[in-house]
């Protein structure tokens, strides 16, 4: 029976290797065994195959599992190879396993079964990263740092506020993975090639045995649909894009001396003995490129495919499994690098005030004193070029006063107490003032973190 099966279905010839997905199918070996078991149990329960035949097939599957993927006989794919291995053990009755199904619904079930594990692992990693971001943020609600726009010093903020911003982004990325999970976790089994089957199967039973939340009902949809792969790849690409931004920031902060990575997450140079490089974060940043490529590649492969099954689909999932692993690993690396890094509080505090970063706070103060915001902006903008890093607050306030006299024809003191202007030039005061919901003030960040 063994050679008859192989000769009939997989002729070989020069295209043999090109046709075969057996090696890549190692990723769905366990899934296929689970799918086979559920199908065989359902067939027996429905009286479609004899119970003792089902028992023999299940015993053979256990044996095939113990031998492992590498021990499978040759075949076009893992589904065929496992069936051949079952028939080798059971005899021709082993071929009853493939009653009322096709490799088309079988492979779709295997991909979903495997991918949902990957997505759950990713969700665990994103939750751990969120915990790490929140924990470090909570320690640093008072730690000043420069905030940037256009990578130029913009306004002072805190490390806590900065990290909480990424916690929010990763929370949405986690939500996208949950959404993808919902649509992955439906059983296509029972669709057969695409046109269903005349056997009295119970699709809901195989779905239940495999832990799916119901079925993809339309049989043509069930065997052809791979939009869940595109959705999942995009969810991973979006998460990886968030991680790449976080990694880029941390690389820059390390470069400026604001942050020390722990040695566990740094690397050195084979030639320059003094170097401590942020390689783990660079690789994290790099993973986004692969993930985006995979998301694009998946859509490109699916675009324009006619209904129902086409062999192109064999190339659609392996890359998604790969980026799922890579992005999940990068998520863990980001969490570890963050949890073990040291923030250089003093360097950050100095930098937080550089580049006249409190200018907006001074303009806000003048606007609160009754000047139109645009006029306040004009006064502070006129003063800005002359205000230098490290200048005494009184000196800076005098420059602002001079600018006000030019713009308003009267001293600033007619609007606001000069002491208040000096206070507004202090980065910590500027941050503390910004207590609007979700803002950087320590009270606001504490409130956000305990939400
Ligand atoms: N290995 C194939 C896949 O991954 C399943 C085989 C279905 N083959 C077929 N000729 N219909 O899509």
UniProtKB/TrEMBL annotation:
Residues 42-293 form the Fumarate lyase N-terminal domain. It catalyses: 2-(N(omega)-L-arginino)succinate = fumarate + L-arginine. Pathway: Amino-acid biosynthesis; L-arginine biosynthesis; L-arginine from L-ornithine and carbamoyl phosphate: step 3/3. One of its GO terms (biological process) is L-arginine biosynthetic process via ornithine. Keywords: Amino-acid biosynthesis, Arginine biosynthesis, Cytoplasm, Lyase. CDD domains: Argininosuccinate_lyase. Signal peptide: none annotated. It is found in: Cytoplasm. Belongs to the lyase 1 family. Argininosuccinate lyase subfamily. This is Argininosuccinate lyase. It comes from Halorubrum vacuolatum (Natronobacterium vacuolatum). The gene is argH.
């Amino acid at each position: 029976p063994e050679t008859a099966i192989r000769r009939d279905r997989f002729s070989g010839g020069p295209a043999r290797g090109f046709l075969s997905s057996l090696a890549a199918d190692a990723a769905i070996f366990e899934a296929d065994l689970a799918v086979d078991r559920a199908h065989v149990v359902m067939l027996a329960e429905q009286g479609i195959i004899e119970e003792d035949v089902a028992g023999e097939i299940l015993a053979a599957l256990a044996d095939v599992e113990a031998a492992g993927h590498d021990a499978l006989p040759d075949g076009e794919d893992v589904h065929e190879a496992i069936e051949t291995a079952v028939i080798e053990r059971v005899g021709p009755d082993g071929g009853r396993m493939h009653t009322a199904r096709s490799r088309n619904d079988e492979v779709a079930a295997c991909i979903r079964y495997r991918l949902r594990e990957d997505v759950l692992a990713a969700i665990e990693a994103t939750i751990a990263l969120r915990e790490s971001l929140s924990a470090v943020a909570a320690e640093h609600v008072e730690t000043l740092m420069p905030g940037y726009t256009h990578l130029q010093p913009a306004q002072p903020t805190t490390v806590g506020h900065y990290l909480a911003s990424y916690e929010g982004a990763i929370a949405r990325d986690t939500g996208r993975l949950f959404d993808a999970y919902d649509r992955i976790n439906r059983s296509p089994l029972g669709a057969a090639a695409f046109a269903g089957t005349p056997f009295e199967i119970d699709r809901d039973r195989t779905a239940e045995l495999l832990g799916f939340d119901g079925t993809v009902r339309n049989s043509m949809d069930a065997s052809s649909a791979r939009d869940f792969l595109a959705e999942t790849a995009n969810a991973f690409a979006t998460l990886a894009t968030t991680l790449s931004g976080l990694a880029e920031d941390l690389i820059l902060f390390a470069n400026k001396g604001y942050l020390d990575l722990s040695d566990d997450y740094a690397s050195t140079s084979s030639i320059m003995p003094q170097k401590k490089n942020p390689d783990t974060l660079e690789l994290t940043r790099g993973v986004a490129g692969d993930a985006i490529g995979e998301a694009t590649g998946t859509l490109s492969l699916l675009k324009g495919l006619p209904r129902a099954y086409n062999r192109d689909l064999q190339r659609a999932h392996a890359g998604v499994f790969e980026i799922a692993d890579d992005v999940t690993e990068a998520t863990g690396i980001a969490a570890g690098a963050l949890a073990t890094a040291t923030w250089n509080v003093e360097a950050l505090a100095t930098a937080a005030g550089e580049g006249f970063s409190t200018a907006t706070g001074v303009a806000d103060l003048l606007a609160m004193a009754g000047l139109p915001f645009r006029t306040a902006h004009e006064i502070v903008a006129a003063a800005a070029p002359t205000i230098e890093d490290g200048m005494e607050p009184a000196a800076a306030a005098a420059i602002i006063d001079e600018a006000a006299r030019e713009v308003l024809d009267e001293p600033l003191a007619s609007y606001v107490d000069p002491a208040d202007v000096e206070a507004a030039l202090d980065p910590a005061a500027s941050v503390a003032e910004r207590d609007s919901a979700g803002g950087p003030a320590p009270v606001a960040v504490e409130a956000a973190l305990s939400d």
